[in-house]
């Protein structure tokens, strides 16, 4: 799953990775991004508009859903294209969520130890996401997850769907709406590029937000 992530790279670095200009205000570094907050994403507000760096609420609830409907922060790759709750957004409202890494917890001697997962080359990660207009009229999103691969399997059975460089443009292409076409053209990042290490228990508290949260520690 993906329930906490990190984004500290600046807009210039993200623009270079995406190979598109993102002329937006500077981003404040965030080292403990939690659900139920505004997160940065790249999307097209409508099919004819340019890509923009925007803020989405991390919690997905379509405008047609009632107040008791769930607000998932993740959507699985196995069901996102067929679930009535997600399939409209999968076809027409896809987005990319930039990140430097994410946190997962592994059970260790009766407790949960947080680990930080990131790219070995420290390049940005681009999580596949979907977004929708919420009942309050504001945009909300969910990050797609897939079965964990590579060393990520050591920590958790699932991981965010991080896309490779060649998949970023087709994922954001408004003309691609067919599930099988998207599946052929969009691919996840090579799992060999992912590494991880244990970090401080302070990350368990969403109010904690500083660079020390991603520093490796010695496991007891």
UniProtKB/TrEMBL annotation:
InterPro entries registered for this protein in UniProt: SRAP (IPR003738), SRAP-like (IPR036590)
Q: Where are the transmembrane segments?
A: none
Gene Ontology MF terms:
lyase activity; peptidase activity; single-stranded DNA binding
GO BP terms, alphabetized: protein-DNA covalent cross-linking repair; proteolysis
Which domain of life does the protein's organism represent?
Bacteria
Keyword field: Covalent protein-DNA linkage, DNA damage, DNA-binding, Hydrolase, Lyase, Protease
What EC number(s) does its UniProt record assign?
Answer: 3.4.-.-
Family, according to the entry, reads as follows: Belongs to the SOS response-associated peptidase family.
- PANTHER family registered for this protein in UniProt: ABASIC SITE PROCESSING PROTEIN HMCES, DC12-RELATED
User: What name does UniProt use for this protein?
Assistant: Abasic site processing protein
Native species: Halomonas lysinitropha
| Gene name of this polypeptide | yedK_1
């Amino acid at each position: 799953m993906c329930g906490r992530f990190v984004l500290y790279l600046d807009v210039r670095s993200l623009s270079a990775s995406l190979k598109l200009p993102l002329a937006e205000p500077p981003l404040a570094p965030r080292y403990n991004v939690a659900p139920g907050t505004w997160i940065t994403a790249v999307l097209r507000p409508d099919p004819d508009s340019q890509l923009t760096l925007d803020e989405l609420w991390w919690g997905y609830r379509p405008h047609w859903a009632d107040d008791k409907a769930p607000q998932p922060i993740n959507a699985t790759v196995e069901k996102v294209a067929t679930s009535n709750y997600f399939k409209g957004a999968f076809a027409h409202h896809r987005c990319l969520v930039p990140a430097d890494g994410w946190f997962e917890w592994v059970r260790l001697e009766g407790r949960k130890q947080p680990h930080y997962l990131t790219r070995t080359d420290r390049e940005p990660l681009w999580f596949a996401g979907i977004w929708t207009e919420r009942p309050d009229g504001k945009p909300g999103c969910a990050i797609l997850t897939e079965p964990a691969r590579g060393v990520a399997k050591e920590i958790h059975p699932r991981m965010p769907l991080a896309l490779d460089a060649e998949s970023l443009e087709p994922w954001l292409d408004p003309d691609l709406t067919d599930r099988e076409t998207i599946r052929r053209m969009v691919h996840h990042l090579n799992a060999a590029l992912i590494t991880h290490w244990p970090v401080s228990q302070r990350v368990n508290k969403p109010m904690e937000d500083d660079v020390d949260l991603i520093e490796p520690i010695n496991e007891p």
